[in-house]
Amino acid sequence: MDQTKVKTGEFWEEFKRRNDIVAHWINKNLGPSFCGLQRSVEEGWIWLKAETARLWTLAQPYFQKLGEQIINYSRIAWTWLEKNVPVYYDLAYQKIMELYAYAQASYKNLTS
């Protein structure tokens, strides 16, 4: 058991040493590129937020007009439904009653 702890400790120390070497190499060779990339991404994000706000300001009147048109067409559709649905309801009721009478007559013919 003690040998395992010693080997694990040695392994861990070697891992930390190599990790430090790799971290220093990455920081030295790739650090400036990552910093530049981060700065570019932040600047792009700021530009995107500003551009999105500008576009939203330009688009708001169109969305308001679209909302008004939807409300107007909904009113027109509702008026049409109030006027025409009772007629179609009565027609559908009559056709269903005719179908029921036909089915009932057919059943009576089959059973008699």
What do these coordinates show?
There is one protein chain. The chain is an all-alpha fold. The chain is 98% helix and 0% strand. It contains one helix and no strands. It has one helix at 2-111. The protein is elongated, with a radius of gyration of 39 Å. It starts with a helix and ends with a helix. The relative contact order is 0.03. The model has no long low-confidence stretch (mean pLDDT 87).
Task: Describe what is shown at a glance.
The protein is mainly alpha-helical and 112 residues long.
Sum up the structure in keywords:
112 residues; mainly alpha; 1 helix
Radius of gyration (Å): 39 Å
* Beta-strand fraction estimate: under 5%
The tally of strands reads 0
In whole angstroms, the N-to-C terminal distance is: 97 Å
Helix residue percentage: over 70%
Structural class: mainly alpha
- What order do the SSEs take from the amino end to the carboxyl end, as H and E? H
Shape: elongated
List unreliable stretches of 5+ residues.
Answer: none
Q: Count the DSSP helices.
A: 1
Q: How can the largest sheet be summarized?
A: none
Q: Mean pLDDT, rounded to whole units?
A: 87
